[in-house]
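Morning. Coffee machine broken again, so started the prediction first thing and wrote up yesterday's gels while waiting. Chain of 159 residues, entered below exactly as on the submission form.
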Amino acid sequence: MKLNEIKDNEGATKDRIRVGRGIGSGKGKTGGRGVKGQKARSGVAISGFEGGQMPIYRRLPKRGFNNIFASDYVTVSLGRIQAAIDAGKLDAKATVDAAALKAAGVIRRAKDGVRVLSDGDLKAKLTLEVAGASKPAVEKIEKAGGSIKLLAAAAEASE
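Came back before lunch.
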């Protein structure tokens, strides 16, 4: 095989259809856009428009607010941590923190911290350093012989 002989498989690429090139082409006159009107023109953005009727996003009342100071934690289940240990991605003897979970591929990014939830079972004896944990998760960790250090509680106490 030579570089000048390399080509795509048959049917892998389709030819571009040139629209609006005369009625005889089969794609002429309106160019596949239907008939005249706003949608036949370019630059149309009418999503959410309901033909003059009051749109649903204006009929429904506003509710709640978005707290800009709220902490956004990444949640990780105990079952997911155990699966990473079983797969050999996490070292059970070392301290498990946000950086270790990220390196193991358990979480994508740490955001404001990691919060551990109690879904699944934990067999390994772990030392965790996380921003938060649910009460059942703490009980399961301590039952397995491990310990947990909550970083968020320490940060609030120092303020």
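The chain has two domains: 17-64, 74-158. Going to sketch it on the whiteboard this afternoon.
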